[in-house]
Amino acid sequence: MRFRIVWLVSVLWLALAACTSTAPESSETVRVMASTSIIGDVVQQVAGEHVAVEVLIPRGQDPHGFEPTPQLMAQLQTADVIFINGLGLEAALEKMLDAPEFADRVVALGEDVPVLLPVEADGHEEEDHDEAHADEHAHGPYDPHVWFDPRNVAAWADHIADTLATLDPAHADAYRANAAEYRRQLDALDAWIREQVALVPPERRILITDHAVLGYYANAYGFQQVATVIPGVSTLAEPSAQALSQLYETIRAYNVPAIFVSEMINRRVVERVVQDTGVQMVLIYTGSLSAPDGPAPTYEELMRYDTTVIVDALRGVE
Ligand SMILES: [Zn+2]
């Protein structure tokens, strides 16, 4: 009996010692949220084991059309930091987060990137991006899909590391080291995309997408985004009959073999375009990662998947 008590006491003591020694490691102190699964992945790469990032918009849902529920609003109140893209991408969520109570907790990663493209109706880019950078961010004159240029995501990583380091100084070095390592991976990704795109003859580097989602990709890798099925940089619109006939003309004029569309988009109009023109419909991932067991479970794999199917379709590889 006595032996048993001694054993129990020493087990308890060991357990207690274990608790106090591991407690500072698993700091549950910082509550980090991210709007899209793409941003969530990048934040997690930088946070590493020190933070479990909560993603607000479920995978497979369109960030443009996402409507926050009352439960989500309650969840947001408990966040220490909420990473969003901004520039109008998460339209309804952004409006909610505009409230003064969130002012010092929201980090809009998309609004502070090296490459910022204006929203263009005619498909041509303006020069002087730095000048354009200076003002009017919140008013939507910029294409919000900044993650389609890995240089912008590298800038996100640094911005995320700085933010987490301020909230959780004990792990500041780890966050900065993770961001630096992730930057190296993004450099490799960028080099790989360039190699792949080089396989497509320059005159065939023509992109037609469901909405204007690949502006940054086109700009970075020498494509022309010549037309879209849905007008503009949001998915929350319908093409007019006139816009559709203009689209058909463009498809014929450029002799494009394929249009690139996301699973999240209402397929009705796209299917009509396919029927009317005989163009091939190729699925890409745009505003959300795939399911964890799908082909685009991380940002990096999303970019590799999209690049592979785009290059194959434009080269005419089945
Ligand atoms: Zn979009």
Give the SSE map.
Blueprint: H1 2-22, E1 32-34, H2 37-47, E2 54-55, H3 70-77, E3 81-84, H4 91-97, E4 106-108, H5 129-133, H6 150-167, H7 172-197, E5 206-209, H8 215-221, E6 224-228, H9 241-254, E7 258-262, H10 267-277, E8 280-284, H11 299-315
Parallel strand pairs: 1-2, 1-3, 3-4, 5-6, 7-8
Bound molecules: zinc ion.
Pfam families: ZnuA (PF01297)
Organism: Ardenticatena maritima
GO molecular function: metal ion binding
- Largest sheet descriptor: 4 strands, parallel
What is the oligomeric state here?
A: single chain
Report the span from N to C terminus. Answer: 76 Å
The backbone outline, from C-alpha atoms, is globular
Give helix % range.
40-55%
The set of bound ligands, ions and cofactors reads: zinc ion
The computed structural class is alpha/beta
CATH architectural designation of the largest domain: 3-Layer(aba) Sandwich
**Radius of gyration computed on alpha carbons:** 23 Å
| CATH class type of the largest domain | Alpha Beta
Mean of the pLDDT scores?
A: 87
How many strands in all?
Answer: 8
The CATH homologous superfamily of the largest domain is termed Nitrogenase molybdenum iron protein domain
Q: Total number of helical segments?
A: 11
What is the domain total for the residues?
2
Strand share of the residues?
5-15%
Keywords: Metal-binding, Signal, Transport
GO molecular function, one term: metal ion binding
Signal peptide: 1-23
InterPro entries: AdhesinB, Bact_metal-bind_prot9, Lipoprotein_PsaA-like, ZnuA-like
